[in-house]
Amino acid sequence: MFEARLTAGSMLKKITDAMKDLVTEANFDCSSTGISLQAMDSSHVSLVALLLRADGFDHFRCDRNLQLGINLGSMAKVLKCCNNDDIVTLKADDNADAMTFMFENQTQDRISDFELKLMDIDSEHLGIPDTDYKAMISMPAGEFQRICRDLQILGDTVTIAVGKDGVKFSVSGEMGSGNMTIRQNTSVDTKEEEQVTIEMEEPVTLNFALRYLNFFTKATPLSGTVCLQLSKDVPLVVEYAMPDLGHVRYYLAPKIEDEA
């Protein structure tokens, strides 16, 4: 038996919206410690990894490990029926062929429930290697979203260069080119979620497809801050941490020079 309850239904909506355009269907792996998900996009260029810790839920029960295959587009449609401040309960029996979504308003005088059929999804669990990243940037999530959106006007490949002067996002296309530089800002007067911190062991310059970065920024509503981790020849990590609940991480392989 699996049962999980969240008082902030809007959180589940945002998590689903953060993944559904990148991955159409995925297995939710439920265990006594929480819920995890790992899935690659159809072109196998990027990967999304979700972790929701059991202690982040208001109530969490999972008697044995379950794998629930869900179409994320269908799940997003079901969650549209949930008001942002509704309490959401997810339920599935051990051999269930459907997952139940129950939505209650705070006064509990309106309760609705929906069943979503489960799918058999073949997916190999990808071991994500522990990498020692040479550069780590923490910046406001809204700022990162704006940079990715604005630069896509000019081209489809962004060069992210981390150096001693800060982080430079550059794009060059047929129409023209553009650069945006973010410098470290950790002054005490700046609110924590507006601070920019840059940790660098050595300068890193890599190219990435902006299309995917714009998919990743759909997770912006989940967190005030985004963390980018870069190293030469390994995928970029874009992490949105949800305090007390877990995180959504995206991995994107760099573009090789001759592809760009």
Automatic annotation (TrEMBL):
Residues 1-124 form the Proliferating cell nuclear antigen PCNA N-terminal domain. Residues 127-255 form the Proliferating cell nuclear antigen PCNA C-terminal domain. GO terms for cellular component: PCNA complex. InterPro entries: DNA_clamp_sf (IPR046938), Pr_cel_nuc_antig (IPR000730), Pr_cel_nuc_antig_C (IPR022649), Pr_cel_nuc_antig_CS (IPR022659), Pr_cel_nuc_antig_N (IPR022648). The keyword Nucleotide-binding does not apply. It is found in: Nucleus. GO terms for biological process: leading strand elongation; mismatch repair; regulation of DNA replication; translesion synthesis. NCBIfam families: pcna. This is DNA sliding clamp PCNA.
